[in-house]
Amino acid sequence: MTENAKPKLAMYWASSCGGCEISILNIHEKILIVDEVFDIAFFPCIADFKTKDVKGYPDGYIDVCLFNGAIRNSENEEMAHLLRQKSKVLVAYGSCSYEGCIPALSNLTTKQATLDTVFLDNPTIDNPEGILPQPRYEVPEGELELPVFYNTVKSLDQVVDVDYYLPGCPPEPPQIWAVLEIVVAALLEGAPLPPKGAIVGARDVAVCEECPLEKHEKTINRFYRPYEIIPEPGLCLLEQGLVCVGPATRAGCGALCPQVGMSCRGCYGPLDDVEDQGAKMLSAIASVIGVGDPSMEEDELEREIQAVVDTIPDPAGTFYRFSMAHSLLRRANLNGGNGKGEAK
Question: In which domain, by residue range, is 117 found?
Fold first, then answer.
């Protein structure tokens, strides 16, 4: 950084819904501090930047890049490598870049099945010729190119080296400001950065630890979808039969969702000592199913337990909603695959 020059900030949107881009505005008036401290080097959501602009920067020109979105196609991967090369600090911003999030649920199926659903087997589609997008297509004016659609969705750190992680779908304002404040202090005051690989602004305890809802001994004999019951205010949602992933999720959000009657979905990811968030929650669920008694025959007990489990409508989508790409499963073993799926 040259004398009197501001630090350079970038933000990029790969495969995600776009909520992470908008979440920056949630720091409210502190956005004026960001404007005062940083020059924006790349932020296509708010200004007309081009990829060629980034390619023209010297390596390490960008001081901090907030990269949100999973790696779904070849353009996402190309931009991940480019921004890693041009950035001193690369932050996996939000659940999609951190763990794959909702886009990575397509790892439960195949690339072809996804394309068929979107472009062919869809009641709202008018595509009688069954045309699918092609990476390259010749037209009179020349060759058109589209990004190559990958079979397997990856998290950012499965493609490039990542310095820090900022979880959330999207991250909450205290976490957003925490990472910006840390970088500003390091750049302008020489303060030390957190250890590489740190999850910034979150806590290493479960959401349940910061959730104010009253908890008792949990015993559950069925589960409900949110529209099926109105939860009793002030009482633990899991105890009321609503699948709340708080026991398997890192705290730091302030347990905002449970406090308004919406179960934790798990967007802050697993705790440090948890390798697979979905498996951790499955274990927690198994420990609170309250059916049967020791006098029952094993097959009868299994049937009662299975009846309770059957009231969870989408176990994979529920327990791996945010963490599929980072899970031990990573993707479904389909069509004779090796369980890890195609790399691309």
Answer: 110-151
